[in-house]
Amino acid sequence: MNIDNVKEFFGPSDFMEHEVFRPLSHIRANWELQIDSETGRYLEEDDSFAALFNALIDELADTRPPFRYHDNEDRLGEHVQKHLNWKIRKSESTWVNQDGSRLHPSDYLALLEQGGFDNQGVSNLIIAAAGRVHASIQRGQMHFDDMERSHQVILAGVLAAILYHREPYEEVKNLNSGEQIAPADRGPLGRSG
After folding, report:
1. What are the backbone angles phi and psi of residue 169, rounded to the nearest 5°?
2. Which of 144, 145, 69, 148 is CA-nearest to residue 112?
3. ∠ at Cα 11 (137, 69), nearest 5°?
């Protein structure tokens, strides 16, 4: 994918803030991201996901989109089905409940998030996100806000799941690089927030 197209796709967006970052505001309260006018990237501020999101945008731009991104999402579904004992199954191209009813979008997003705990889960989420971005751009939807609503909701959930899974690792990386987190800023498990 073209890095410029991907950067433009993830340009400023109220929809994106509300659907990707606000649901994670219990982890990092600064969910309203600002653009750095000099770099065109999200301004890396305290208690925000901007640094992780900038890195994710770069990674998505460098990721070769799969032919069928649903295959990567299916691997996540298979993980929760087999290892978390969810009573779901695949019916043709759709994940359904035990009674055959289609999963609600929020249940599908929970499936993707929980599937992200698999060893290859985050990799599958990234490849699926790259595929969804590529498919949108191919359809002339050049910005997140231009996406068909149902696809926008799922991509937002995939992006939020990636950030959720990567957030603790960024904290460890920052601690290892010498960044100090005051004890008063650490939660009960030693994490900030």
Report:
1. -70, -35
2. 69
3. 35
Cα 176 versus chain centre, distance = 24
How many of the other CB atoms lie within 10 Å of CB of 120? 14
Q: What is the pTM of this model?
A: 0.87
Beta carbons within 8 Å of 50's beta carbon, 6+ residues apart: 33, 34, 42, 43, 44
Q: Look over the chain and give the mean of its residue pLDDT values, rounded to a whole number.
A: 89
Reading the block at residue 86, the tokens are 């969810």
Coarse DSSP helix, strand, coil percentages of the chain, rounded to the nearest 5 percent: 55, 5, 35
pLDDT (tens digit per residue) in 74-97? 999 999 999 999 999 999 999 999
Task: Please give the helix or strand (H or E) that residue 130 lies within, else none.
Answer: helix 121-138
